[in-house]
Design a protein that fits this description.
The chain is of the alpha/beta class. Helix content is about 45%, strand content about 15%. The two termini are about 35 Å apart. InterPro entries: NAD(P)-bd_dom, NAD(P)-bd_dom_sf, NmrA-type_oxidoreductase.
Length: about 270
């Protein structure tokens, strides 16, 4: 039996969709709001902040697709500790970690993913390290840039770029890894690393609206987010992600998506066209 956390979210619901399409019926959707899980599949209440619910929900699984949690880094890491503590030791855990996992990373979420990976070390596990989600980048930055015509971000002046991957490709790869009980480390990336100019060009062509990239520096970006009233942790999360992009920590491509699933990863332009 395969359990999937974050079953109401973009990645978790995608994993369920791909497993169902592959003919798996022994699935358990794990969610803090089981009533929000799509019908046709067993759903159990699993609130990351309610260890008792996790103990109940994780019973009887062979495999757990553990989609990482969100919020502040402290919240995310606490949630992961709770899930792993509640999960029986023989369950194969496929965990969505992050591509920027190096110990010297200054990405806001990296220490939490490092700690979670360490907690999984003595269990059967697969670490699926994801690059930046194309969908997340589009919704958070490209939609506005398409309206104004300018993508002003601290992505740097050229290479190395970002190897965006789509949530759906990640979900497809996680479903394949869970089915095959893949062990070890996977890099889930897009087909290529795109610079700021290349992102703007891809968006211009895909969306049919002119967009130019303008490199801004870290301080200006942080000041803009602060002026928009964003909380300090989110400013750190976004600004440190872009610093990692400039440091080539999200540039690896292509990763393991095609090897795992038999289908090449979707490009940013193709994702935007859809
Ligand atoms: N690589 C990237 O670019 C990138 C970008 C953004 C996020 N991420 C990471 O990737 C993960 C998956 O992305 P996504 O797009 O699927 O996120 P999403 O759509 O926001 O889904 C997050 C899921 O986590 C669940 N959740 C939150 N708090 C919970 C709790 N206390 N107990 C149980 N479930 C809880 C949510 O449940 P509800 O529906 O009840 O809220 C939802 O199902 C994120 O959580 C984050 O760790 C990566």
């Amino acid at each position: 039996m395969i359990g999937i956390t974050g079953a109401t979210g973009g990645v978790g619901s995608g994993v369920i969709r791909h497993l169902l399409a592959a003919g798996r019926e022994d699935l358990v959707a794990l969610a803090r709001r089981p009533e929000a899980v799509a019908p046709g599949i067993t759903a159990r209440r699993a609130d990351y902040d309610d260890p008792e619910s996790l103990n109940e929900a994780l019973r009887g699984l062979d495999t757990l697709v553990m989609v990482s949690s969100d919020g502040t880094a402290e919240t995310m890491t606490r949630h992961h500790r709770n899930v792993i503590a509640a999960c029986p030791a023989d369950v194969h855990i496929v965990y969505t970690s992050i591509l920027d996992i190096a110990p010297d990373s200054r990405f806001y979420y990296s220490p939490g993913h490092q700690e979670t990976e360490a907690l999984l070390a003595d269990r059967p596990h697969c670490l699926a390290r994801t690059s930046v989600f194309a969908d997340f980048f589009a919704a958070t930055w490209l939609d506005d840039a398409a309206r104004t015509g300018e993508l002003a971000l601290p992505l740097g002046d050229g290479a190395p770029g970002t190897s965006f991957c789509t949530r759906d490709d990640v979900a497809r790869a996680l479903a394949a890894a869970a089915t095959a009980r893949t062990e070890g480390v996977l890099d889930l990336t897009g087909p290529e690393a795109l610079t700021g100019d290349q992102i703007a060009r891809a968006a211009t062509e895909a969306l049919g609206r002119p967009m130019r990239y303008r490199a801004i520096d870290d301080a200006d970006y942080r000041a803009r987010l602060a002026a928009d009233g964003e909380p300090a942790w989110l400013i750190e999360a976004y600004a440190s992600m872009f610093r990692s992009v400039r440091e080539a920590r999200f540039a690896a491509a292509p990763g393991d998506i095609e090897r795992l699933t038999g289908t090449p990863p979707t490009s940013l332009a193709a994702h935007l066209r859809r």
